[in-house]
Amino acid sequence: MSRYLMRRILMLVPVLFGVTFIVFALMYITPSDPAQMMLGPNASPAAYKQMRADMGLDKPFIVQYLQFLFGYKHPEFGYKGLLFGDLGRSYISNRNVFELILSSFPNTLVLAAGALFFALLLGVPIGIFSATRPYSALDMIFTVFALLGASMPVFWAAMVLIYTFANNLRIFPAMSNPGDVISLVLPIVTLSMYSMAIIMRMTRSSMLEVMEQDYIRTARVKGMDEKVVIFKHALKNALIPVVTVAGLQFGQLLGGAVLTEKIFSYPGLGTIMVDAIYQKDTPQILGSVCFVALTFTFMNLLVDILYGFIDPRIKTTYTKKKARPVAKRSAA
Amino acid sequence: MSNTAINIPGGTIAQTARESNLRRFLRRTGRNLGQFWRQLSRNKLAVVSLGLVIVFALVAIFADFLYEYDFVTSNSLENALLKPGESGIVYYHEEDIEHTFILGSDNYGRDILGRLVHGARVSMIIGFATVAIALMVGGVLGAFAGYRGGLFDTIIMRATDILLSIPTILLAIAIVAALGNSFFNLLVAISTSMIPGYIRIVRASIISVKDQEFVEAARCIGAKDFRIVVRHIFPNIFSPIIVQSTLNVGSAINWAASLSFLGLGILPPKPEWGNMLSEAREFIQYAPHLLFAPGITILLTVLAYNLIGDGLRDALDPKLKR
Amino acid sequence: METILALRDLEVQYYSNRKTIRAVNGLSLDMHKGKVLGLVGETGAGKTTLALSILNMIRAPQGKITAGNIRFAGNDVLTMNKHELRNMRGKDVAMIFQDPMTALNPVLTVGDQIAETVLRHEGVSKEAAWKTAETMLETVGIPADRAREYPHQFSGGMKQRVVIALALACNPKLLLADEPTTALDVTIQAQVLDLMRKLIKEQGTSVLFITHSLGLVAENCDEVATMYAGEIVEFGSVKQLFGNPLHPYTKGLFGSLPDLSAVSERLKPIPGLMPDPTNLPSGCFFSPRCPFATEICHNTHPVDIDVEGHMVKCHLYTKKGGKA
Question: Residues 140-169, chain A: which have Cβ within 8 Å of C?
Fold first, then answer.
């Protein structure tokens, strides 16, 4: 188990470098000019040149990337580098980039986790229900809802919810903050819609497929109650693909939170990221995008590990106890 | 086949054999299309969706005949925030004309329906162009990676892993942010986000097909790689690609709207569904049609593509054929 | 002989795409206590459907038992409510499926799968049920400590042993064995059959042994029924049927067996195919393939005829002194 984990974590390393490289390269080709931004429009060419040198922007691309990873020494603009959790200060707010990320990330996490929880809470039971009564009226209704949920633009769903529940019914506030649970309801519902639709459909189709399997027939032939057949024999098998989807969804939720946070003026990582993009605040963009990508990658790893707990077939391939003697030939 | 060809008078054996091959190909394609359409038409939702998509496509193509572009992009503040169905006097082309705002007007007094019509053109172009770009790039890379394997395959797959480890919408946002706001950059951003998906599908299909016996057989009788890919492998990977592409058109329209909503795509006054909603934000309380008209348009469009995609998946799935 | 299972005029249909598949057609059959009845027939004859019907496991809307009745130990299976049915399944009547690879749930340990059946039917504690599961595994030659392993950790033959342990865990009165060895290697087949024979004898279980191999029937069964297109066309003791097969179809089955004593003779496969169950021929279902078919065979459906305590459904025997 631990060796498997070690291998998986080692395999992450090139992916993580790749991600940081892509994000860095994207920011490098951005037409914005941080030195100009620091100095304002009326700076002399000499001061501008000095500023570029101070900020380390006059060096070749690859050197800048290495600085970004391993740090850059300068009394004013220096930082320890991404690998050491330091990307210096924001050009705009002058706050430490990683401190800002770490302080806002839990807020995003609350939103994404809440949304995933809500999506699973409704998506899985509805999916099971639909699978046990395929093509019934209720199944059709749920299918339509799932299709709507999967087709609806997140930002529009948010606006409709605000229009209905905040502006007109006045049940929930239009703006959210992490301290106020009531204010979290609308963003969580918004964010969960797409995932809920996906999880519902996945559970339904996976459940339908499993219910056709021979071992379900075996369970019925054994006289097991239909509840046991569904919840013990079928569900555990059907959930395996659902877990994968839910894990992937969690990553997408972290990314998708950008729009939701923006609309609900929620102080999460997404808002910080978008504001940084508007203001061309390169260190902040780099830090936030890398951070989300890294979290997403780790989530995928976590899903893989979780997989092993649900599916014994995978668990045995990496727990590999002492080699078992070949099937005892007692009756041979 | 060539046995029967020999008996046909006139022409060499080779010629007749080739003609009959062509004829056979056409006949088979025709029959498959007929069968495919019968399958698809059983799915009423997919047929309705197809109808909707065709109507939207016609609207997009003939947008200029329905509303002039200048008309839907120029302000007419005295007509701001009219309700659906209200009329107003618009000063346009140096004269006052009476105009009925079928879906009302926005905060600049621009015709909502007219902007939706021109937005449909933008959305359709983005939807199809991004899918075409992603399909070409992803398809070629995936096909090479799958067919050749080896180092190239490894490199491509690692690159795919890397791209997939950035949440899709975030990747698109980062690309537009880096390249700047423009129609072309929006296309690049959205298609880049789709490429990894295509690489995976095409590569997986190629790998699953390439070692099967009929491909082995083709190779044994000396068919060239190119011919094997075109004749034997392509028909087999066609289904997943067409399904994925249909679904992707819907997603692309959704993403384009989302990015434009964030101000990272097509900016007003150019008409685009997402930026219409962005502009509407402050006014939805007084003019809910600003919220519902573009939103429902996006929803219906994306829904239609999703339904067609589902329908295609069922129609193309040989396991479901009866 | 005490009758444990009596099927009368059973009809089972499946529905697919506006077509009706007539899988079982007016089938009658008696099974006797403590006996092993071999049910032979080609693929598609309705053998598995018959076994599932006995458990009332034909599921709507795809399939339905449309006529007839099934009496197990005097009780009418088709009028039982859900609860009674579930009490019967696994406890009184157990079933072994053809493919052990897919018959076991991959995410539950084999011990759990056996123990839950015991727990369901025997009203014992969890510990006792687990103990029974371990004992059953040992009975079929699997060490008890492997009860905590998952199906994928067993080989095919071992899995079928687990399935047998599972089926016999509650001492069923009737065992429906649906081609229990078809999916196994020949050497493993013999082991599994030996084991089954031993356990059946010990527990006094009646068995419906479904197979398409006449060899296995001769070795393992007391009585034989030949099934064709959803009907029993011949029924008798192994001795009667093997010594004097009456129905042309049964004869055909023997003819398509390799005869080791006559080296030069070629196999004689039965010409033609099983009739399409959505469109059964009029008259005798076998008439289109039958070398002896006369006009009456094509027009009138034959009835059961008793020829010296040996039942056959064929017009050839009406005139030969058999009585309907």
Answer: none
Q: What is the ipTM of this complex?
A: 0.85
Domain extent for A37: 11-84
What is the rounded distance in angstroms from the CA atom of residue A100 to the CA atom of residue A86? 11
Euclidean distance between CA atoms B53 and B57, whole angstroms: 6
Q: Smallest CA–CA separation between A331 and chain B, in Å?
A: 40
Q: Do B303 and A297 touch (CB under 8 A)?
A: no
Which residues lie below 8 Å from residue B46, measured CB to CB, with a gap of 6+? Answer: B40, B307, B308, B310, B311, B312, B315
Q: What mean pLDDT value characterizes chain A?
A: 85
Residue C263, C-beta contacts closer than 8 angstroms, at least 6 positions apart: none
Angle between helices C156-168 and C126-139 (to 10 degrees): 130
Whether the CB-CB separation of B171 and B159 falls below 8 Å is answered with no
Q: Is residue A164 a part of any domain in this protein?
A: yes
A325 part of a folded domain: no
- What is the DSSP annotation of B3-29? HHHHTSSSS-HHHHHHHHHHHHHHHHH
Q: pLDDT class for B96, splitting at 50, 70, 90? A: confident
Given a contact cutoff of 8 angstroms between Cβ atoms, the answer to whether C1 and C30 are in contact is no
In the structure, what pLDDT confidence band is assigned to residue B44 with cuts at 50, 70 and 90?
A: confident
All partners of chain B with 3 or more CB pairs under 8 angstroms? A
Last residue of a domain, one of A54, A84, A114: A84
CA-based nearest residue to B131, from B79, B190, B203: B190
The reply to whether A160 and A287 lie within a common domain is: yes
The closest CB to that of A159, out of B177, B263, B284, belongs to B284
| Structural domains of chain B sorted by starting position, each given as residue range(s) with its CATH number in brackets | 45-73+111-320 (1.10.3720.10)
- Pick from C57, C85, C105: CB nearest A215: C105
Whether residues A295 and A165 fall in one domain: yes
DSSP A233: I
